[in-house]
Write a structure and sequence with these properties.
Length: 296
Amino acid sequence: MTTAKPFPPELRDWVAGHLPGLNANEDRSWPRSTSLVWRVSAADRDAYVKISPSDLDFEREVAGYAFASAHLSETQAPRLLACDPGLRAILSTPLPGRVVRDLPLRVSSESRLYEDAGRLLRRWHDASEPATAADRAAVRSDMEDEAREAADCLEDVVPHLAADRLAMVEAASKELPGLAEQLPLVYRHGDYATRNWMYDHATGRHGLIDFATAAHGVAASEYVWLCGTVWSVRPELREAYFKGYGRPLTAEEDRLLHLLTVRIGVSYLRNGLAEDRAELVTRGHLVLDRMAAHRP
């Protein structure tokens, strides 16, 4: 059983200043040390409060809220009520519905949800401000890091992978920077996984939360989690998603997505071997097996 994270007194005082009559809080953090989220109540009003794990996360999330408020409706994204850079605290409105991750859905509802998710992200991407030279330099540096990580992992996993899997990892170590350099940049949500999707059964509406990694990047990098965990075994959901998005991936985007997902898989494997964590080893092999079966 996960122990509930305590609500810090200084955070309580700050929230009470914005929500008079504060009378309840409930830990809603994910089960990791860097996740600090509570649902709070004051009279008949509810809200969420979050402590960002870093100054960069805080800055990106505040900017993401401003972007979402300008381009998405109140049923598609929560609204920022208050923020404090000293506490790295963010207070926001609740969004109707439940988190999609592990939510049981009918096949027809799931297909519509993925189509709506693609449509919402296209709206987000289309509203992007032009990327700056600094944005391009940051993406270039990130992709060089991704390639270097793949190369480092490759040395450690040679005895544990078949030749075709090793070839995929080697390709990631060589191709990622060049592929990304060819592609335009958009303002990404940055963590477009089902843990950040909301679904309202009453209305069938799809919403989006958590803007802590919002930044400019290549659009294909938004889909790595979906590619490795969902689309490789549920291709019909990929089809529904890009129907909503309004266009398929280009050949360059598809190759980049494939190799970014390979990089994630081999990192799981290498870390699992180093830390003697069987669940990470299994996850790494699973992702790499799926990528081997679905090469662009």
